[in-house]
Amino acid sequence: MRQAAQKGRAFFSSRMKCRIRSMLNLPAEVVVAATPDHMTDLPRASASPLVPADRYRSYARKALVLIGLLSLFRLLLAFGLELGNDEAYYWMYSQHLKSNYFDHPPMVALLIRLSTFNGILQGAGWLRLGAVAGGAAAAWLLFRAVSELHSPRAGLYTSVLYLSSFYAGLTAGVYIMPDSPQMIFWTAALWMLVRIDADERNWRNWLLFGLCAGLAILSKVHAGFLWIGLGAYILLHRRQWLRLPQLYAAAAITAVLLTPIVVWNIQNDFITYRFHSRRVTVDHFDLRFSYMLKEAIGQLVFNNPVNVALIIGALWRWKRLPAETKGVLSLFCWIALPHAAFLLAVSLFRDTTLPHWSGPAYVTLLPLAAVMLAGASRRRFLPRAVLAAAGLYLSVLTGWWLTVHFYPGTYGRRDPATLGTGDISLDLYGWELAGKAFGAQYRAAVDAGAVPAGTPVVASYWWGAHVEYYFCRPSGIAFQALGPIPDVREYHWRNRGLPVPQRAFCILASDEAYGLPKGFRQTNAQYRIEVSRGGKPAHAFTVYLLTR
């Protein structure tokens, strides 16, 4: 009887301790027992339940098919839309490879070099090929990560939700942006974190995380939130990891990869960090709720409203999520939520944030939504919510492609001087056609002796990269951007050593806000190139001849 009573008290005490620790969100006590010698070489059990190999292969095939179909759709968009301002600017990066650029690290330039076969193939589709392939790779990496975290079914849902995000499936997955390579390495880093949680002493997983985090930061500095979130998680939930040499080895790998960025900034007075800090530093405390509302709506739209609703639902039902997944999902929350909250906080004071900056945060939270959906009873191949997200993505982007190509005229301003202003679709339409017209006029002027051969084209803003790609590159015409560093950005370094032109052309689009470069005595408008869409005027380009 006495032994039974002691066992009962011990059992009750153990249950009460577990209950209290659960309520306070404290780590559970671990009772270490002696391990027989014949069992010391057994591998650790995975945090997620074992899945039959044939079931995993079935879901993997389904995921690959859906990733392939959505990637084909994105590939058609990539080849069917002209480059935007930002993309033309990053093309300029790829023409002059460096260890770092004024406003971004070098990975996007390397990806363009790779997808264009070292610049041999030109055209919007070839420049974007790396973004499309990278989007497919990132979706597959998420499938692998969430399959190990919970189940292949949840992994399938995550990959579809990822490609249904307008951030992942357009900004990073069609357009060639620094986000394009970033998301390959970001999702790979998330996969490694899942593996680290299952086996915290595995050297390979830690080293690969350090490598992927470093390469993600070499794509875009926002990826520093991977380490910020991991650091917060370790301090609050896994302080025992501070004793792991693997953690410091991973941090060392990331630090070594960032050396080229740091060295370049030391040589250039840390201009990259000063530029970006001006965009997010709060220098006054006048609240601007309209700015914050704009940022919140932007985050909602860019990350697909269906995806955002699913993420909010999963956070609301946190207690219902499987206990074995909460460790990793908590880590994902520490990476994502401070990222999104920081942007909202900055937007409360400044109108300098861009909605796609929050994209990696919402991608990191997609596994929560997928795990929640996978825990429901299965009645169909894909849940209605996943189909709704994919359907919204496909319908909106199809409508966007149709608008760019077939909208009659412009939905922006219609007066000749500012024709097309406010119509963002014109950033992707009419530039190639206008560039061909300018090339013909330029050759005719040179042949007639009106201007000397080699007369360059100039611009006063970095958006002039658009002009360089479509107006200058096809005809071999030199281009310079002239102005202060904040206006011309990376062109300041490219212009070094070039003589200031005495005569130059300048091409101004009617729907863009920058003006003529300063320092020229005469500015004569030569002619106007008008671009029509659907039989109506859409936007126009005025060609000036400038003389000092």
UniProtKB/TrEMBL annotation:
One of its GO terms (molecular function) is pentosyltransferase activity. InterPro entries: LipidA_mod_glycosyltrf_83, RgtA/B/C-like. GO terms for biological process: lipopolysaccharide biosynthetic process. The keyword Transmembrane applies. GO terms for cellular component: plasma membrane. Keywords: Cell membrane, Glycosyltransferase, Membrane, Transferase, Transmembrane, Transmembrane helix. Residues 103-264 form the Glycosyltransferase RgtA/B/C/D-like domain. Coiled coil: none annotated. It is a multi-pass membrane protein. It is found in: Cell membrane. The keyword NADP does not apply. The chain crosses the membrane at residues 63-81, 125-143, 155-177, 206-235, 247-266, 296-316, 328-349, 361-378, 385-407. This is Glycosyltransferase family 39 protein. It comes from Flaviaesturariibacter flavus.
